[in-house]
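Notes from the 1:1 (GR / supervisor)

We went over the backlog. Supervisor wanted to see one worked example end to end before approving the batch request, so GR pasted a single chain during the call. The sequence is below; no edits were made to it. Supervisor asked that the structure be written out right there so they could see what the output format looks like.
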Amino acid sequence: MLKTKLDYYIEKYETKDFIKDDPVQFIHKFTNKNDIEIIGFIASLYAYGKREVFISKLNHIVNVMKNKPFEYIKSFDVKDNNVLNCDYRFSKDCDLKEVFKILNMLYKENESLESLFKYSYNQKKEIWNMFQGVADYFYSKVNEKNITSGFYHLLPNPEKKSALKRMNMLMRWFVRKSEVDIGIWNFIDKSELLIPLDTHVAKISRSLGLLKRNDNGYNSVIELTNNLKQFDPKDPVKYDFALFGYGVNNNI
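Structure output shown during the call:
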């Protein structure tokens, strides 16, 4: 039975040993909630491409922040000519500086990432609308003269109905509570989370008959999540670990 097989992989892979090779490792480096939110958000933005490459880049960003993400953001001034050396694939230093600038503005307003996500969620009590609200906040604050198109790769527009894999991954980290995920946000129930879908997860899901659609966009995210809810309607996204484990053990 497929559920039994996937539950086995959850038990095998949703352990502390999973953390060291995954971008989730960065939220486990800190104990202060503001530090965790900021570094988790940045880690999710950069979590694409070759894992060893973006993890190296994220380690560099942590060093730039002198291991104090919240203090760094609070004192960040985009007018400074500091060189971050954070170019990564589609995005450049200037794009990350704008992200830092907007985070600085958010926290100066006595708000936080959680308050931004929570406010956006409460508008319609719907997760995709929440993502749109978060993106719109950043878009409303960005100075177009200071960025490249890489800014919009870091923060894609939910209106375009892509999978938003990295944003869904961030929500898994912050809403679920396990040995891997830290569960520091409680304004949304884990039953409402969506599977972080990329080409690899999509390929595995199709091989298991969990995904019929050929595209890897929003509709496939919904289809796969709904199918996983048949196994556990209260926590469908835990099967992210099962799909990972299945892929590892079957060389997919």
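Supervisor's comment: Residues 2-249 form one domain.
Batch request approved.
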